[in-house]
From TrEMBL:
InterPro entries noted in UniProt: Ankyrin_rpt-contain_sf (IPR036770), SecEffector_AnkRepeat (IPR052050)
Domain of life (superkingdom): Eukaryota
Location of the region described as Disordered in the Swiss-Prot/TrEMBL record: 1-50
UniProt protein name: Ankyrin repeat domain-containing protein
Length: 254
């Protein structure tokens, strides 16, 4: 792990970067050290977390959370053994990254979790982690299907629905926003509600991938999804969307 990565773990989110003595004794910004990479793309240089702690680098609950997110079990274990705090984000970020071993160790050692663990697992497409968390009694809510849909994770969405996870119109809107027509079609075929945000989300995200998102809007409208004038007004620079909307009776001057 690079100096920059470990320093980021030490200080958590935000706060001024402190300078650390590394290697030759030259004072190097941890951020600069993090950005210095070899040809393989891996950071060059490095210093152990104990070194940074020894020179007064602060840490917080985000130290454990970021270690978990990166799958760094040994670092997480060291941090906890040396009194670093943690909270539910440790489990949530481990789940998002699919780091089952880290999540299991955290839970076995008393780390709390909440619905964020299931939500992050769903959004990250981590079905095995999601299944394990639910088997252990972790909470979830309607945001889990929405995040799975937005990430394009159809298998995860199908499992959520089959196992009784609630969903609402956010699922269709998220699928549309991501341009995932297959997921939108499946959700609707299985009774998921939608509203005008479905068309709005697809239209608003159409700037870079107009054709893909336009197909979502077309299908949604052909199947009765509501829309409003401001749905397409969001897309003034998306000429294909504008032209199709005008041809299909949406008044844009209102």
């Amino acid at each position: 792990m690079s100096v920059g990565q470990v320093h980021h773990l030490c200080r958590g989110r935000g706060g001024p970067a402190r300078r650390a003595q590394v290697g030759t004794g030259q004072r190097v910004s941890p951020r600069r050290a993090h950005l210095q990479r070899d040809r393989s793309g891996r950071p060059t240089g490095g210093a152990p977390a104990p070194h940074l702690r020894a020179i007064g680098c602060p840490w917080s609950k985000w130290t454990c959370a970021k270690a978990a997110q990166g799958g760094h079990l040994e670092l997480l274990q060291w941090a906890r053994a040396n009194g670093c705090p943690w909270d539910q984000m440790t489990c949530a970020l481990a789940a998002e990254g699919g780091h089952m071993e880290v999540l299991q160790w955290a839970r076995d050692n008393g780390c709390q979790w909440d619905r964020g663990t299931c939500l992050r697992a769903a959004g990250g497409g981590q079905l095995e982690v999601l299944q394990w968390a639910r088997a252990g009694g972790c909470a979830w809510d309607e945001w889990a299907p929405a995040l799975a849909a937005g990430g394009g994770h159809l298998e995860v969405l199908q499992w959520l629905h089959a196992n009784g996870c609630p969903w609402d119109a956010k699922t269709c809107a998220s699928a549309a926003e991501g341009g995932h027509l297959d997921i939108l079609q499946w959700a609707r075929a299985n009774g998921c509600l939608w509203d005008e945000k479905t068309c709005a989300s697809a239209a608003d995200q159409g700037q870079l991938e107009v054709l893909r998102h336009l197909e979502v809007v077309k299908w949604a409208r052909a199947n009765g999804c509501p829309w409003r004038a401001d749905t397409i007004r969001l897309t003034r620079r998306r000429q294909r969307v504008l032209a199709w909307a005008a041809e299909n009776g949406l008044a844009l001057d209102a």
